[in-house]
Write a structure and sequence with these properties.
Helix content is about 45%, strand content about 15%. It is of the alpha/beta class.
Length: about 500
Amino acid sequence: MEPEENIKPHAIMIPAPLQGHIVQFINLAIKLASKGLIITFVNTQLTHQRLMKAQSISEDSPDYNIFSEARKSGLDIRYTTISDGFPLNFDRAGNHDQFMEGLFHVFSAHVDDLVGNLVNSNHNPPASCLIADTFFVWPSEIAKKYNLVNISFWTEPALAFTSYYHMDLLKINGHFGSQDNREDTIDYIPGVEAIEPGDLPSYIQDSEPWSTMHRYIFKSLEDARKADMIICNTVQELESSTISALQEKKAFYALGPIFPNGFTKSTVPTNLWEESDPIQWLNSKPKGSVVYISFGSLANISGQDILEMAHGLLLSRVSFIWVVRPDITWSLESNDLSPSRFEDKVKDRGLVVPWCSQIDVISHPAIGGFLTHCGWNSVLESIWCKVPMLCFPIFTDQFTNRKLVVAEWKVGFDLSSGRILRRQQIAQKIDCFITEANELRINLEETRKKLEDALSENGSSGRNYKQLICDLKSRILQKCKSNKTSLL
């Protein structure tokens, strides 16, 4: 039997096929490979096709490897794709419930075939670990079948995870699962001093959480309870009491912020849309004068909200760059404020793009604020670049993230007290935000330093990486001893 210090873990990594998750998985894969792990990275075929299309790479390049540059630098990252159970031309958004049912019942069979081949073939060393997105319902079953260490990767803050983890407490106390959910402050979740019901993830807030999507989310979190370890893209010092309480129940490792080295754009393609390049436009703007507006890669908002936002920007007179994905909403009722016509009205103070490299934009000196949906990647990137946030959460963990941004760390303001946008309120809030953002920058300096310190060799995340790899090797050794198998 190989001694523990000589074990070289071979991890299969499978992200959920969503932009924000793929970015984190790719950055984590590079980080773990740089620490000596062998990685087999698995994308769905549709994700792979979209990455190629966004890079203008021909579909006639079947051997295209997104990690080719990383491999040239000596990292052992292997790459493969699998079917999600549907044809490539299947309309997943238009048949959402059917697609989710497929992820429930079909996708795992494709994963099973792949993992079986990686474990039972002549790979050297054989796969010994599965790092799967927490938003999958099958990892514990497949890890158990192939005797793999089961690591669940949670791509949101620890506060969102512990909210799901303690749904039983929320249900017992009447804050979840009822048409008459209580609306008073929640003060009984371990490690959480207090949280308002409106700050819980949206799937827990819903008074009728019985849809296919709800069932899928809750099943995936139930499966995560069976994981050997949970890794999270957060920082110990930012959520210390929440993380400490979770660590009493699970092996939980805070490894964040999981960024590309040096916070530069990754050499590995991660965008599922073709990028516009607004840098030349930004170069013409004074320092800190532009508000960056983006609602992320997944959230949809109504055409009415888009119109109110557009009118609010017209009233505010602020300079801005606004990311309006082609699929962000249904068709607008008024062509007068469609993105092309809107740009005519704002002339040189506003720029509308379908997609861009957020890291390139948010790190530009001209950016003075970020009107954001509070996706977790956006929050961490904004803190790193010391850009104050104006928060408009839309769904899932974004309400929880807003609590951290506004109430806990005080690095952002609320755009709207409710979920309905009004143009006058938008204009007023944006103008006040620009005026009062300096008070947020003091807190941003402190919060950013916590991220920076965590990433140092002896910082909390640096230490947690070392502990994770040490514990992983120990668990691999235990599994091999119990099954009398070789690591070679």
